[in-house]
Design a protein that fits this description.
- The protein is an alpha/beta fold and about 325 residues long.
- Helix content is about 45%, strand content about 15%.
- Strands 1, 2, 3, 4, 5, 6, 7, 8 and 9 form a nine-stranded mixed beta sheet that branches.
- Strand 5 (about 140), helix 6 (about 150-170) and strand 6 (about 180-185) form a beta-alpha-beta unit.
- The chain is globular and about 60 Å long.
- The structure holds phosphoenolpyruvate and magnesium ion.
Length: about 325
């Protein structure tokens, strides 16, 4: 089996009945720029920029960030690379910046932190833009957006950084493309504001890890409540269905970059609901491609239909895992 799964590595992904599914990588460690698996993927769906920040002893300079971002953009010159702006706070505190809060997951994290520190945000976005000079494959993704005001404010800062770097690029005689812009769909409030995203963003990416945490009010890292942290909860699945249907209706490209996309059952359900773009950790790529290639879209749609109308997460889990196991 390992051999068959290995054989999937450099092939594009299709369902058994030839529906193309776009598979992207979740990245963040520099090792991701040189792995063999990247031959058969459609780009990077989530580059977690906080990882380089977490590995340093102090804030990385604009030059340090530029060279780190350049490395990943240059590895995939013909495919899109989605670079997420700093998502610290919550479970990802920086060792050189202490944030003491009673409820860190409800506190100063992601875009909330960077909008309160525009100097940090501007350095990062300038570094991203400089790294993308001469290339045309960068998308910028904003984490933890809970309302349109945050998005508009972040867009204003990105525009400022763009004007600064555009002037620099012109001096250097190098082209600077405008990055495509997207937001993470991971705070439940934004589910009710999707139409306001039309014309404001170029794409959206679903963070099923945080979406599950915030919809179910369950800390994603607390072992005591781990049994109720469940992305197969029918409420989470119905939220995911709402997002893809609304994204399709509004013609906003949607993908999923939470762990659910790299889980065999999760991937089948997502494709069955209508998702065509999944982003996952390197280690899941071959397995997910293998499973998708052996199941038809109609079968996935049937499973999704069952899951969306089920009352219990356990029923979703047993029915879908039985199905996957039957198929080997
Ligand atoms: C998510 O929340 O699903 C996600 C992909 O982001 P992170 O796990 O980095 O919070
Ligand atoms: Mg998240």
């Amino acid at each position: 089996l390992a051999k068959i799964v290995e054989g999937e590595l450099d092939k594009a992904s299709y369902t058994k009945d030839n529906q193309r599914i776009y598979i992207h990588l979740n990245a963040g460690l520099s090792a991701d720029t040189c792995i063999a698996v990247n031959k058969g993927v459609d780009g990077v769906g989530l580059y977690r920029t906080e990882v380089p920040f977490l590995l340093q002893r102090s804030f990385p300079s604009e030059e340090e960030q530029t060279s780190q971002y350049r490395a990943i953009l240059a590895t995939y010159p013909d495919q899109s690379v989605v670079m997420r702006t700093l998502d610290i706070g919550g479970d990802k505190p920086l060792p050189y910046l202490s944030i003491e809060e009673d409820n860190p997951f409800l506190g100063w994290r992601g875009i909330r932190f960077t909008l309160d520190h525009p100097e940090i945000f501007l350095i990062q976005v300038r570094a991203m833009l400089k790294a993308s000079m001469g290339l045309d494959n960068m998308d910028i993704l904003l984490p933890m957006i809970s309302g349109i005001a945050e998005l508009d404010e972040a867009k204003g800062l990105i525009e400022r950084a763009y004007c600064e770097v555009a002037a620099y690029a012109e001096e250097q005689g190098v082209e600077l493309q405008r990055p495509r812009l997207g937001i993470m769909i991971e705070v439940p409030s934004i589910l009710y504001q999707l139409p306001a995203l039309k014309g404001r963003v170029d794409f959206i990416s679903v963070g099923s890890n945080d979406l599950t945490q915030y919809l179910l009010a369950v800390d994603r890292n607390n072992a005591r409540v781990a049994n109720i942290y469940d992305s197969l909860h029918p409420a989470v699945l119905n939220a995911l269905k709402h997002i893809i249907d609304t994204g399709n209706r509004l013609e906003i490209p949607v993908s999923v970059c939470g762990e659910l996309a790299g889980d065999p059952v999760g991937a089948l359900l997502l494709v069955g609901m209508g998702y065509r773009s999944l982003s996952m950790n390197t280690r899941n790529v071959a397995k997910i491609k293998y499973i998708l290639r052996h199941i038809t879209l109609a079968e996935m749609q049937q499973l999704a239909q069952f899951a969306l109308t089920a009352a219990l997460a356990d029923d979703v889990r047993s029915k879908t895992t039985d199905f996957v196991e039957e198929r080997g």
